[in-house]
User: Fold this.
Amino acid sequence: MRYLVVITYLWILAPSLWAGGTEGATPFNFLFLDANARPAAMGGAYAAAAQDANALLYNPAGLAGLRQHYATFQHTGHFQGVTQEYGALALKQGLGFMFNTVGYGKIQRTTLSNPRGTGLDGFGIRGWAVSSGYGKSYGLISLGIAGKYITEEIDDYRAQSLAMDLGALLDFGPQNVPLSLGFAIQNLGTRAKFQSSYEELPVNFRAGLAYRFLSSGLLVVDANLPKNGSATVHAGGEYVAFERLALRIGYNGRNETGSGITAGGGVKINRFSVDYAFVPFGTLGDSHKISLSYCW
Assistant:
């Protein structure tokens, strides 16, 4: 009965958060959840713009284009007690490190004889991903690779797997064309064992375009093609005023519970920047992401 309740909970929650990407049918759905507030505010369209600490989450080839070191940390408060913590470090030598964890809150334990769970304690569900990667530039094209360990815990049960991401980034900036194209294949790896069954990883192909205008503007478009599920489109824009204040808006095609519209902004003070993203999920509630970043 306990296992049935957990599966039912995930079946309801996963499509609500990431509908269209995996249909709630594969493990490790939290890997599709946007982390840092900047890409989240632009609808998660970041495959061609991820030349910062968030490269490992969207396209490891972005590690090759770093002109300085980046560090970022983010906390997210979702609806129904779901939380997310995310941190990443990217060095201009092309190295990157990342952790990403999502907690699904507390679930009341029940039994056949006690369907309300009176007097019984609760249990939690949490997913973890730890990753490191490297990117190198070859003229206009950059290539990247990342390895990751991912695990999902449901009460006393655990599924875990090793995976890798591959990425490519074509940047026409050196040719005075403010355009870049990004491609990534994510979550290639071993099957995850959960109790006695084996599940495939949520393999995903991501392709994106980024166009820069007026020296302070950015337009981005991504397409996500998961192995199991429907393709989704993501788009967004950013404008930075006075080199300090950023305004962002986007559309996340994976969010079927709301309009898909996202918004946010950020402020940069010397080497620090604070960013915020607002992601509504219709009647389920709203998601608020706050990120703190530092570059040197």
Remarks:
- The helical segments are 2-18, 37-41, 55-58.
